[in-house]
Amino acid sequence: MTLTEPNATAAGAIAPVPPLAERARNVGGSPVREILAVTARPEVINFAGGLPAPELFDAEGVAQAYAQVLARDAGRALQYSTTEGEPALRAALAARTTARQLPTAADDLLITSGSQQALSLLATVLIEPGDTVLVENPTYLAALQVFAFAGARVVAVECDEHGIDPESLDALVARERPKLLYTIPSFQNPTGRTMTAERRAAVASVAARRGLWVVEDDPYGELRFEGERVPWIAMLPGAEDRTVLLGSFSKVMAPGMRLGWLRAPAALLRACAVAKQAADLHTPTVNQLAAARYLADRDLDAHVATVAAAYRERRDAMLAHLGDALPAGSTWNRPEGGMFLWARLPESYDTTALLPDVVKHEVAYVPGAPFFAGEPDRSTMRLCFVTQTPQEIREGLERLGRALRQS
Question: How many CB atoms lie within 10 A of CB 31?
């Protein structure tokens, strides 16, 4: 008698492979990445990307840092490292953070492969499927992807030009009992707005009274063109033991180095380190040592000031010509720093539907709709002003104006 396995197939038949996990089937790709793929032609003036200006990279300084690291101790630079990060880099970052009035020790920091990985690690260790996460409305698109992969229920907090509305936040936290609030308080992506000091203090108060983690993402904060620096939420009373501060070299040194960091209370930091061990063991050693060497030998603050001055000129060029490009009744903001400007066209316009025709005029933007966790405002768009020169910005806006008039 021949026994047959219950799942055996008929002779010669091939069984299908098991399906993808549900989260992989249900979470879509980034519309921004898809737009960049479509508009990669050099003739397209692309306001869609969130890419720093490559001509402003300190390529010489970064190259020298790598050369010195490899010349002095290539064996160490090319070897495995600790999950928490290279001590020299953590110490340098702790010193920079402390100098900005947030006392920080090297052991308070975890080096990550860009701040995007830091966000992913936090989702891994904090979020159970079905947990509620609060986000600004609108918010960073890749954060929405991270939370979706974690199985979170994402709820948008009401915002205005000054950031999160504290009363709305308090009511939402009381009703929804979320695990965390994700915010980009300075020069937010996608809107470019900055949360006021008063609003930040109110957020810290809500977090303390209601019991809430605050994830404060700050990739753009050093790129200030005008106005006074606003304190981190992590510095404010009530928030010290429940705020995770994320930082990055991507916008101020080079995104290709993939260096970010996470500052968190000790227990949460340890959990993130364990999650990182499972993800990639550690961030590349040579990149960490090169960044530490750069910070030791070069004046990063002076370099950032040069970049910010160029970005301010480009922002001003966009502001000067945007009124001629957008239809009557449009509104837009004036960001004090960062990389993005947010515009709203009259309600009759759908920027997603318009984009294919606009691209035919060899210019591109990102429609605002994908950045919303709830009902989207389809008349909005994000414009990145840092990648093109002022002359290219003017030409791109002329193309955009022609495209919108002919739509």
Answer: 17
What DSSP designation does 178 have? -
Q: How far does Cα 367 stand from its chain's mean position?
A: 17
Dump pLDDT digits (tens) for 298-350. Answer: 999 999 999 999 999 999 999 999 999 999 999 999 999 999 999 999 999 99
> How would DSSP label each residue in 244-285?
EEEEESTTTT-GGG--EEEE--HHHHHHHHHHHHHHHSSS-H
Structure-block tokens of residue 66: 């790598």
- Separation of alpha carbons 337 and 328, rounded Å: 26
Encoded tokens for 306: 């040069």
> CA-CA distance, 407 to 401, in Å (whole number)?
10
Distance CA 58, CA 303 (A): 8
How many Cβ atoms from other residues are within 10 Å of residue 198's Cβ? 12
Q: Report d(CA 300, CA 307) in Å as an integer.
A: 11
Residue 286: DSSP 8-state: H
Determine the straight-line distance between the first and last CA of the chain, rounded to whole angstroms: 75
Q: Which of 24, 20, 2 is nearest to 11 (CA)?
A: 2
Cross-strand bridge partners of residue 45: 363
Query: Which residues sit opposite 342 in a β-bridge?
Result: 382
Give the CA radius of gyration of the chain: 23
Instruction: Label residues 309-343 b or e (16+ Cβ within 10 Å = b).
Output: ebbbebbebbbebbeebbeeebebbebbbbbbbbb
Between CA 254 and CA 235 the distance in angstroms is 27
Helices H, strands E: what count in the chain?
A: 13, 15
Give the Cα separation of 138 and 377 in Å (integer): 9
Strand 380-384, strand 260-263: pairing? unpaired
pLDDT, tens digit (0-9, with 9 covering 90-100), for 28-57: 766 666 676 766 788 999 999 889 999 999
Show the beta-strand stretches assigned E in 27-84.
45-46
| H/E segment holding residue 366 | strand 366-367
Alpha-carbon distance of 181 to 242, in angstroms, equals 11
